[in-house]
Amino acid sequence: MKDRWQGGQAQFIKSVFKTSQLPEPEFPEFAFAGRSNVGKSSLINKLLNRRNLVKISSRPGKTQSLNFFLVNEDVYLVDLPGYGFAKVPRKVQNDWKGLISSYILNRQTLKCVVVIVDIRHGVKDQDLELVTWLKNENIPLLIVYTKQDKLTANKKRQQASILDAGFGISKTDRVLFSAKTGDGKDNLISMLDQYL
């Protein structure tokens, strides 16, 4: 099913600021979550072989809505607002939280939440909070350790083990990925296809 992700059409559909604006639930959906500036946009662009489909901002906290992208008229990718950025006003943060949790808990077409984590750091509280919450709510999740190109092979293995232990997952529950080199892309695609 590699063609679904790489050879076809991908288009931005809409930005959703409240649940009443959600598109009709007609296609399976994958939501992409992660801390601000973790590389969500770069990952989605790489996954779809597109340069600028998802706008990449150097300003953390820029995404303030759920952004829906339709791939080949049969799958939605949903870019969620980044979390963990202190400069965003608390009210805006709370609005995001409400919107995101309502979407994740109630969207019947949501197949999986892809949680993106920077492999160079230890387990961050907010990442662990999200992963724990998803597990408790029985929401399927896939963790992607990104920016692996920034580490040596040894350091990468070491960091991945530390993160696995911190999140309480095994190797089979996550993907190592680099938006720069494309390493891990085929693995990510086959994991996503399993949810379809």
The stretches of 5 or more residues where confidence is low (pLDDT under 50) are none
State the CATH topology: Rossmann fold
Going by CATH, the architecture would be 3-Layer(aba) Sandwich
Q: Radius of gyration from the CA trace?
A: 16 Å
How far the N terminus sits from the C terminus, by CA atoms, comes to 10 Å
Element-level helix/strand string: HEEHEEHEHEHEH
Indicate the overall shape.
Answer: globular
Structural class: alpha/beta
Sheet with most strands:
7 strands, mixed
Which whole number gives the mean pLDDT? 86
CATH homologous superfamily identity: P-loop containing nucleotide triphosphate hydrolases
Tally of domains: 1
Helicity level = 25-40%
Core attributes:
alpha/beta; 196 residues; 6 helices; Rossmann fold; 35% helix
Descriptive report:
This protein is α/β, with parallel strands linked by helices. It is built from six helices and seven strands; from the N terminus they run αββαββαβαβαβα. The protein has one domain: 3-Layer(aba) Sandwich (Rossmann fold), CATH 3.40.50. The protein has a seven-stranded mixed β-sheet with strand order 1-3-4-2-5-6-7, with helices on both faces. Helix 5 links the parallel strand 6 (141-146) and strand 7. The model has no long low-confidence stretch (mean pLDDT 86).
